[in-house]
Automatic annotation (TrEMBL):
Identification of the protein by name: Very-long-chain (3R)-3-hydroxyacyl-CoA dehydratase
Catalysed reactions listed for this entry: (3R)-hydroxyhexadecanoyl-CoA = (2E)-hexadecenoyl-CoA + H2O; a very-long-chain (3R)-3-hydroxyacyl-CoA = a very-long-chain (2E)-enoyl-CoA + H2O
One GO biological process term: sphingolipid biosynthetic process
Root EC class: lyase
Membrane topology: Multi-pass membrane protein
Organism: Pelecanoides urinatrix (Common diving petrel)
Pathway: Lipid metabolism; fatty acid biosynthesis
GO molecular function: very-long-chain (3R)-3-hydroxyacyl-CoA dehydratase activity
Domain of life: Eukaryota
Gene name tied to this protein: Hacd2
GO-annotated cellular components: endoplasmic reticulum membrane
Transmembrane regions listed in the UniProt entry: 32-57, 95-118, 130-153, 165-190, 210-230
Family to which the UniProt record says this protein belongs: Belongs to the very long-chain fatty acids dehydratase HACD family.
Entry's EC annotation: 4.2.1.134
The protein's role, per its UniProt record: Catalyzes the third of the four reactions of the long-chain fatty acids elongation cycle. This endoplasmic reticulum-bound enzymatic process, allows the addition of two carbons to the chain of long- and very long-chain fatty acids/VLCFAs per cycle. This enzyme catalyzes the dehydration of the 3-hydroxyacyl-CoA intermediate into trans-2,3-enoyl-CoA, within each cycle of fatty acid elongation. Thereby, it participates to the production of VLCFAs of different chain lengths that are involved in multiple biological processes as precursors of membrane lipids and lipid mediators.
Length: 250
């Protein structure tokens, strides 16, 4: 699911007392490409953040702010699909060890929520729950892509590392709540319109009920979100405790 946070991967392996041998990182050209990619993504999510703030100040209300950032949100969230290629190519794991399965799940679920729910069911775009997950995603992604950028450059500020492994404690539940409420709000409209559903009989002898599918998507959060959340809590203890031990030894 589109579990916020982080995001980001959205779940990075930490550093144990005996660190495993790091994968060989990408070469200079690949590193430059990855840095540019992460800088662009950081800038993109900053644009979304600024757009939200400007729209709020102009309207004096947080309602229906989705329309002010709809286009950049679709563009940069869909752009995260490129991250799937980077993970499969094993570039990012060489710099920032990541859970490929969890990262792939989060990226695909966020793209799904962006296009197959929020874009496709126009009626939910005014729901406050959309703003809830958009804000959670935005903060998470700014931190996450900054984290990747500085890690690639081997100059990771402690503040960014701390934010990466701390703010998810609030942002993940916030994002998940917004996502679930948005899907739930979409259900009546999907059922009424038959959106993306295929009924029998047809020449393919195949049926698909999008309404039921969305319910199954919501149910899938039950096993997946706790796994991701507690994984990140575990990584937080390992990463930040390792950093503190390193500072004390200096």
């Amino acid at each position: 699911m589109a579990v916020s946070g982080s995001s980001g991967s959205r779940a990075d392996n930490g550093y144990g007392s005996q660190q495993p041998r790091r994968r060989k990182g990408p070469g200079a050209l690949a590193t430059a490409y990855l840095v540019i990619y992460n800088v662009v993504m950081t800038a993109g999510w900053l644009v979304i953040a600024v757009g939200l703030v400007r729209a709020y100040l102009a309207k004096g209300s947080y309602h229906s702010l989705y329309y002010s950032i709809e286009k950049p949100l679709k563009f940069f969230q869909t752009g995260a699909l490129l991250e799937e290629y980077l993970l499969i190519a094993k570039y990012l794991p060489g710099i920032v060890p990541s859970s490929v399965v969890l990262t792939a799940f989060q990226v695909m679920s966020r793209v799904f929520l962006t296009w197959a729910v929020t874009h496709s069911v126009k009626e939910v775009q005014t729901e406050d729950s959309v703003l809830l997950f958009v804000v959670a995603w935005t903060i998470t992604e700014i931190i996450r892509y900054s984290f990747y950028t500085f890690s690639l450059l081997n100059h990771l500020p402690y503040l960014i590392k701390w934010a990466r492994y701390t703010l998810f404690i609030v942002l993940y539940p916030m994002g998940v709540t917004g996502e679930l409420l948005t899907i739930y709000a979409a259900l009546p409209f999907v059922r009424q319109s038959g959106l993306y559903s295929i009924s029998l009989p047809n020449k393919y002898n195949f049926s698909f009920d999008y309404y039921t599918f969305l319910i199954l998507v919501m149910i899938s959060y039950i096993p997946i979100f706790p796994q991701l959340y507690f994984h990140m809590l575990h990584q937080r203890r390992k990463v930040l405790s390792h950093t503190e031990e390193h500072k004390k030894s200096e």
